Amino acid sequence: MNWFIAALIGAAGGLGLFMLLREFVPSVPSLGGAISRLEGQNTYVEVVEESPTLSSRLGIWAQRRLQGRGIPGLTARDQDLAVLGKLRHVLLGEKVLGAGAGFLFAPVVIWLLSSFGISLPPYVIIPVPLVLALAGWILPDILLKDQAKEAREDFARSASAYLDLLSIGRISGMMANEALSSSAQISENWAFQRINGALNRARWSGSRPWDAIAELEEELDIPELGDIGDIMRLSGEGGAQIYETLRGRARALRSAQLAREHATANRESERMTIPMTLTSVLVLIVVAYPAAVTLLGN
pLDDT tens digits for 200-227? Predict the structure, then answer.
């Protein structure tokens, strides 16, 4: 078994060294890829970054080789990537890093188990690197969904504040365009910056600002932005006083956010019930054990 573990560790280390050295060796350009790029048939866009990270480099490398091959696990939602401001090739690089780390970590786990005298049969040892590599490949997608969910909740809180600012701007006599733009420039919060960027693009392209808000809602999958766009569209088209409408929608958003936070707090409290109960039982056992031993001994 020791020779098998040593061979597995050596193979993993050799593979890692080969992949590292391969990046420093000049490669011959692919004629087929060059022709397809000249003909405009490539379906991916290569992004040039000033200081690319390791995950970005790996993502671009993997994107060139996996494009169009139907590799599973490349189906992250565009909305999740957009709300986090993450490029798809960066996520792909993180998945490659996770898979490689899981595959190379497997020999370490096997070696630790063998050092404690735990010997595993070959039919268990062989799938371990593949299982850990698969887990490392899937983990970035799970983290992406959780982070996108948190970002949308944060954006919803900012949207309620933005509605309050819009209502103040409209009641003070601002036009709809002016209220949208000035309210988005008040804060340096990332949500306000995304709204301000969408409004600036609309102004440069000559489109209506509430249409830009609706497009941003589709891009980020944030329903609260759709409400803002609908209300301001009615205002921009000559609707009646919308001060109360804006304030009422802001209150409704805050109430919904408060209800979600209460539900989250209740779930966390329920999760803490089991550890607290076990701790109480352990303390009771520790306190009662000496007395029980004394009584039974007598």
Answer: 988 888 888 888 888 888 888 888 887 7
Output phi, psi for 239, to 5 deg: -70, 170
Angstrom distance (rounded) from CA 232 to CA 216: 14
Residues 240 and 211: their CA atoms lie apart, in Å, by 20
Specify whether the CB–CB gap between 113 and 19 falls below 8 A.
Answer: no
Q: Which of 239, 240, 241, 259 is nearest to 251 (CA)?
A: 259
Which CA distances in Å does 38 have to 70, 103, 140? 24, 37, 33
Task: With H, G, I as helix, E, B as strand and everything else as coil, classify residue 263.
Answer: helix
Q: What is the pTM of this model?
A: 0.66
Q: Is 76 helix (H, G, I), strand (E, B) or coil?
A: coil
What are the structure tokens assigned to 6, written together?
């040593």
Residue type, 206: G
**Is the confidence at residue 91, as pLDDT, over 70?**
yes
Phi and psi based region of residue 2 (left: phi greater than 0; alpha: psi -120 to 50; beta: remaining):
alpha
